[in-house]
């Protein structure tokens, strides 16, 4: 997700040389804090305040900026090593099973909308959500086609020939050129997928009322944190089993 840039930064901007995993671990701490704030905003003692819309909007802006910062730092790091973002080691094996082009599938937002107790959508909101959903599915298919072409490139005769000749009579310049083209294509696909993820999230938020948005953001944070806990437990159990 991505959000407005005018809100205060909840995390200090990291130096570009710092390992992305270090940034991500700190980002997760703030994710838990925002999750708690979102749930508190939805508690019975807060949900009927007269100034709820203003309070909700301030929190929404902070959470959206939190997601935006993640994608900003990800973009910087991906330009240094795009391959790692297609199977990032800072995510658990369980979390990576949900990955699509380096992150969650954009249409996943609509699943969250269905599961977050937002049951009071107006007819106009429903129409707008369905419109975004149709456009998103079309763009997802286009990116699926792009990734299929990239995978075909890996098995293409020219690249395979270069790989077979590598270490024999292959010119390193030839292999470097082929590798550069492949990594560039993967970076473009990753950035396109991240842009789509952000566009869908912002589009849905613009349709929803502040309280509806808080419910969806709370559901997103809760699912993310639960998936992480389950993944860590799974990895720990697997490691324990392997050593016995």
UniProtKB/TrEMBL annotation:
Q: Please list the GO biological process terms of this entry.
A: DNA-templated transcription
Taking the record's annotation, the residue ranges forming a coiled coil are 118-153
Keywords (A to Z) from UniProt:
Coiled coil
Q: Which domain of life does this protein belong to?
A: Eukaryota
Give the protein's recorded name: DOG1 domain-containing protein
Query: Pfam families from the xrefs?
Result: DOG1 (PF14144)
Q: Which GO terms describe its molecular function?
A: sequence-specific DNA binding
Q: Which residues form the DOG1 domain?
A: 17-237
Q: What species is this protein from? A: Dipteronia dyeriana
